[in-house]
Design brief:
globular; binds pyridoxal-5'-phosphate; 484 residues; 4-stranded antiparallel β-sheet; 3 domains; single chain; Aspartate Aminotransferase, domain 1
């Protein structure tokens, strides 16, 4: 293979893939949102022996078009109201192709010079947006889970000297961390990975609007202290996974300060509110956090995967926790290049040039483009909630603070059932709608009870899609009542 023939291959494949992608986009409006195929069905499609001889790229793409794309979850559909998984921007999709073509190793500066500087730039933009001062820094992560892990490692390592060398025994007592019972599961996973044990996480109850109850938080901290434990970190949520609500960040910041705790805000989803001058006030207090998780692959429409950890007090905080200099990456060039070695700021070694798609997305959308989209999503969610309020068989649960609306299907005959049967009715309705292929949304559990959860997350979603969803809920709800 010569570079000329490689260039020819790119041309040929590029044309074929461009058609596949644009045809895929064209079908988004009408394609079923979820495939009815079971894992067994899909296993039959892909169960082949290890290929011994290579095959032409055209045939591989044919199989992609026939077997892969149609059974994919159509996350990009305007009728996908699922987890925080938005339609990726076209510029982000193609930025991914460019990223793969350049194949920069965004770990050490020397292996990805432009990548490193662009990563520093986009991190700077995010810090600015969120209201951090000029000394703040950060690092791109694979997503919110890894971003939380990175932040909580910084928190752990600040709790006692020599933590990196000696592990948690350096603290001399059990470290405890606090978050609302609505926190993302990655917080619990992180404390496990960090050697603190899952039981070091105190899950604090929430009020009827699903915000952390600060009086209970204070009580838990006091109790732990009197039992000889060391509270070291408080996590606030800005855009909770199930409800989208935002914890009272200024109060949490004050409690963290009083108790000498690290304050981390998980704004993986809700960070997007910062684009809108009208909505940003909901995030008030976030700038007081020692660290923030903000996922561009959520409300910024950057294709997976792209998360960030931002730290208020600069890159040294991350380097204190993560920096190790392997001999093969330790040449001193006498400049500031080490400052751009992103492998020193997190856990990954070889890293993808993910900053490219984020940089392009920022430029393509601009702050205004993002603000308009975020505000439109909030309006559509409000519209959905208002329409739902007109239906006697549905009851909303909690508040709308972002583009998430939770509710329950509670017609007369379900209201009279035992709680577990009411929960089953929610799942039955969710399943009917998923199987219909006409929309997708998940169910969740809120304070022990099953609820339905809709998130407006695609920039393709319009009012008519939301109205169709309301109609679908009504129809399938009625059909469920008849079938019982
Ligand atoms: C609030 C919050 N934090 C963290 C995460 C984890 O993000 P990821 O799935 O990108 O790892 C999520 C995922 O939905 C989330 O909602």
């Amino acid at each position: 293979m010569t570079s000329e023939s490689l260039s020819e291959q790119h041309k040929k494949l590029g044309r074929a893939v461009t058609s596949l992608i644009s045809e895929y986009a064209e079908r988004l409006e009408s394609a079923p949102v979820a495939s009815p195929a079971t894992p067994a069905d899909l296993k039959r499609l892909f169960d082949e022996p290890l290929p011994l001889a290579g095959m032409p790229a055209e045939e591989i793409l044919e199989q992609f078009a026939r077997d892969v794309a149609p059974h994919a979850m159509q996350i990009s559909s305007p009728r996908y109201f699922g987890q925080f998984n938005p339609t990726p921007l076209a510029i982000g999709v193609w930025a991914d192709a460019l990223c793969s073509a350049l194949n920069q190793n965004a770990g050490a500066w020397r292996n990805g010079p432009t990548s490193a500087l662009i990563e520093a730039q986009v991190i700077g933009w995010l810090c600015d947006l969120i209201g951090y001062g000029p000394g703040a820094f950060g690092v791109l992560a694979s997503g919110g889970s890894e971003a939380n892990l990175i932040a909580l490692k910084c928190a752990r390592d600040k709790a006692a000297r020599d933590m990196c060398d000696l592990g948690v025994r350096a603290a001399g007592a059990d470290l405890t961390i606090y978050a609302s019972e609505q926190c993302h599961f990655s917080v619990e996973k992180s404390v496990d990975i960090l050697g603190l044990g899952r039981k070091s996480l105190r899950k604090i109850d929430t009020d009827e609007r699903f915000h952390i109850r600060v009086n209970l938080l204070r009580e838990a901290i006091e109790k732990d202290r009197s039992d000889g434990r060391v509270p070291f970190c408080i996590v606030g949520i800005a855009g909770a996974t199930s409800t989208g609500v935002i914890d009272p960040l200024p109060e949490l910041a004050a409690i963290a300060r009083e108790n000498d705790c690290w304050f981390h805000v998980d704004a993986a989803y809700g960070g997007g509110l910062a684009f809108s001058d009208n909505q940003k006030k909901k995030l008030s207090g976030i700038e007081l956090a020692n660290s923030i998780t903000f996922d561009p692959h959520k409300w910024m429409f950057v294709p997976f995967s792209c998360g960030t950890t931002l730290v208020r007090d600069g890159g040294n905080v991350l380097r204190d926790s993560f920096d190790i200099s392997p001999e093969y990456l330790s040449e001193d060039r006498g400049g500031s290049d080490v400052q751009y070695d992103f492998f020193r700021y997190g856990q990954m070694g070889t890293r993808r040039f993910n900053a490219l798609k984020l940089w392009m997305a920022f430029k393509f959308m601009g702050k205004r483009g993002y603000a308009e989209t975020v505000e439109r999503h909030l309006e559509l969610t409000r519209h959905f909630a208002d329409r739902l309020d007109e239906l006697p068989d549905f009851e909303r649960v909690g508040e709308i603070e972002t583009a998430v609306c939770c509710f329950r299907y509670l017609p007369e005959h379900v209201r009279g059932l035992a709680p577990e049967d009411q929960d089953r009715a929610q799942q039955a309705l969710q399943q009917r709608i998923e199987k219909s292929g006409r929309a997708f949304f998940p169910s969740t559990i809120l304070q022990g009870r099953r609820a339905l959860r809709v998130n407006i997350n695609s920039y393709l979603t319009e009012r008519r899609h939301v109205d169709d969803l309301v109609e679908l809920l009504r129809e399938e709800g009625n059909a469920l009542g008849v079938d019982r």
